[in-house]
Amino acid sequence: MSYATIDQRTTNNSEAWGLTAITARIKTAFARNRAYRQTQRELGMLTDRDLADLGIGRGDIQRIALEAARAV
User: Fold this and answer.
1) Residue 61 near residue 43, CB atoms below 8 Å
2) How far apart are CA 39 and CA 44, in angstroms?
3) What are the CA-CA distances from residue 22 to residues 6, 9, 17, 28, 60 (Å)?
4) Which of 27, 49, 51, 71 has the CB geometry, 3.0–4.6 Å to 56, for a possible disulfide?
C-alpha cells in the first residue's frame, strides 16, 4: 500500500513560488527580446564591408541575434 505525504513548507508557499516563477520567466523573456532587437539593430546598421570584416553575411544577422538572445 502506498502513502502520500504532504510537505507543509511547499504547499503553503505554492502561490508565492508560482508567482515568483512567472515573474522570472517574464523578466527573462523581456531581456531576451531586448538582446535580440539590440543585436539585430546594431548588426543591421553595419555596412556590408564591416560585416564581411567580421565574417558575417546579411543573412546571418537573424541567427546571430537569436543566439545572443538565448545567451541571456
Assistant:
1) yes
2) 8
3) 24, 20, 9, 10, 32
4) 51
